[in-house]
Amino acid sequence: MYDGEYSDKVIDHFTNPRNVGEIENPSGVGTVGNAKCGDIMRIFLDIDDDGIIRDCKFKTFGCGAAVASSSMATEMVKGKSVQEAMEITNKAVMEALDGLPVVKIHCSLLAEEAIHAALWDYCQKTGTKIDGLKAPKADIND
Ligand code: FES
Hints:
Strand content: 15-25%
Number of strands: 3
Structural class: alpha+beta
CATH class: Alpha Beta
Bound molecules: FE2/S2 (inorganic) cluster
Strand order of the largest sheet: 1-2-3
Largest sheet: 3 strands, antiparallel
Number of domains: 1
Low-confidence stretches: none
Mean pLDDT: 94
Distance between the termini: 34 Å
CATH architecture: Alpha-Beta Complex
CATH topology: Sufe protein. Chain: A
Radius of gyration: 14 Å
Number of helices: 5
């Protein structure tokens, strides 16, 4: 890494990302992007009838911090209820990664937004309501 500001956990999740891929017929999928850097993140959720997230995969076309954030975020939502997943903030993702350089904070925000967008898609499909969940700013699923 060029500036030594990345934690070992960030480097680990960047070089060996967990849960990369797609889920066929996902319960919810969310795609978000950051207009400034042009990076895009898509998260797929497999949610069972009890509202528990059984599987989560991601595809990120973006920087190393975005890859590490999505990898960590997918690990964090697995096994959680949709309400618990809703409450995972980018701050929690950053803490789990032992921090990110300040200029990379928006990368972890992308992970939070992608989870929310995927949960929103799930709610639209199933008529479920998740407290505090709002429609994604821009839906770029298509
Ligand atoms: Fe944009 Fe990391 S630089 S997501």
